[in-house]
Amino acid sequence: MQLAEGKRLLHTSQDSLKWKKNNMDNIRVRFAPSPTGFLHVGNARTALFNWLFARHNRGTYILRIEDTDEERSTGEYEEKLIEDLEWLALEWDEGPVKGGGSGPYRQSQRLNIYQSFTEKLLEEGKAYYCFCSIEELEKEKKQAVSRGETPVYSGKCRMISLEDAKKRICAGEQGVVRLKTPGKGELSFEDLVRGRVCFNLKYQGDPVLVRSSGLPAYNYAVVIDDSLMKITHVIRGEDHLSNMPRQLLTYEALSFPPPKFAHLSMVMGEDNTRLSKRHGATSVDQFKTDGILSAALINYLALLGWAPSDGSEVLTLEDVVRQFDILKVSKSAAIFDYDKLHWLNRQHMRKLIPSEQAKQSYPYLYKAGLMPEEQDMSGNHWEWLEKAMEYFIEKVDHFSDLPEHFNALFEFSLDELDVEAQEILNSECAGKVLKSIADKIKKIVLLDFDKYAELTKEIKAETGCKGKDLFRPLRVALTTKTSGLDLDKFIPLVEEGARLVFPKPMLNCALRITKVIDHIKLK
RNA sequence: GCCCCUGUCGUCUAGCUUGGUCUAGGACAUCGCCCUUUCAAGGCGGCAACACGGGUUCAAAUCCCGUCGGGGGCGCCA
Fold first, then answer.
1. Cβ < 7 Å from strand B, A residues 146-175
2. A14 contact to strand B (CB, 7 A limit)
3. pLDDT tens profile A318-346
4. What positions of strand B are covered by protein, i.e. any atom < 7 Å from a CB?
5. Would you state the torsion angle of the CA atoms of residues A391, A395, A396, A402, taken in this order, to the nearest 10 degrees?
6. What's the pTM?
7. Residue A184 catalytic?
8. What are residue A176's DSSP bridge partners?
9. Which one of A277, A340, A367, A457 is the catalytic residue?
10. Cα A327 from Cα A321, distance rounded (Å)
11. pLDDT tens profile A68-110
12. A209 and A217 in contact (C-beta within 8 Å)?
């Protein structure tokens, strides 16, 4: 009932307009990753949805680094993270490097801020020092679970007066700071994607605000940071949903008005467990090296849990920004479908202009030893690459598959002919056809496809071979393969490529034919 | 175990708010056909879903209750 009510509020156009007027001004959202590893696509999706929400509403998108986990956070991961976000083109308006009016944007540089709020909470009696050992707490927890209850901290250190506690701290005793929670009653809030969500506070014990190391716990730092940075909408993963009671209570203790929340469903692997390495690529970095375009990844991620109202699927970033609506985001978890990503990538690859296709493909071809160093790439090289890409782009769904296809242009090994190819070359017609073409091809300076067509006509007349008997020997003679390449594309590429300098030389058609004839004679 | 979230084709989703227009639409994958001297690409078509059980109603994918399934959380991690 409540849920339906809430949802309706957000969907009627009149109310929605009013809602927009009141809340859509000065929209501020943030993406707050911790630099403890490579950027996971699940997190990238969270970043994307935040970014989309900001851009759609002309708001501000903030990047904040949550590096209070001393053991796992590193500067290298932060750099990598920034690099990945830049690659995805999810530019932030405020954040590390860039700066902004609500900095610093690394939690590790905000410790004094948290401290001043802790003092205040302690003085007001809203928080207290706790000296319970981890072992003690573990024991209590286990007992609760064995009784079939939700483990909740007993709150026994509430008894200790602030004065006594401070003395113990000064004496060097280790302690944490906990928030006093009511331990009863209900708490609910309106989630932008889930509707009204309720919690029973009897399951909410006194959460740790400050660890014994003096560093703030996540749930404490976010609340302060989001408040001070004037975040209006917190869009994050569903795994944070159960943190809501303690965070809402912390907002209350701090007298900060809570922002709006939207909890996004998780991204799963095909076996319906959280997407992880054993499902395949999971980090943005990995998709990048696999030759997925950032535009395609973004497009796919946007479609994971959201769909534009017109049902179109191949979208540019601008399309998505224009149509994005957080209220239409799906509530249920989504399985990451590599096939669809690859299909989308193919669509985006095709939409690139030829020069961009060549540019994007070059690193992969260079790495495979097929293209010269960048400084040795002449204008003719690039022109040739563009032409080649026009053809090969149809064959692949990511750039890293390109070298394998390009290889067919460079490789000409008659020692590795398969059985079928052998048979074709040994056929009666093959002999006649090859002899005929060998004579004629010498007189042609540059074989293009028109000349090739003329040639085949003449050969046909001369030898009486036609159809399969004519074309299959020619294909094998030129490519050493029985299938794969369109000869009308292959021939001009090889002819022009043979005039360029590559790490592996490319043979022109005349040479290929000569070699094949020698090869047959040897036998 | 307890708490929270979630459930439409194999997968992502449209439809659910305002019940009838849904013999449930699209896309990926898959299968078949066409095109083609090969392989692809492309074109056309097929298969395929409202988790289950109860209500409410003339009418339920849509509203209500329950069951079951899936996920998340239960840290001095974030």
1. 148-151, 174-175
2. no
3. 999 999 999 999 999 999 999 999 999 99
4. 1-8, 10-15, 17-18, 25-29, 37-42, 63-64, 70-78
5. -60
6. 0.91
7. no
8. A130
9. A277
10. 14
11. 888 889 999 999 999 999 999 999 999 998 998 998 999 999 9
12. yes
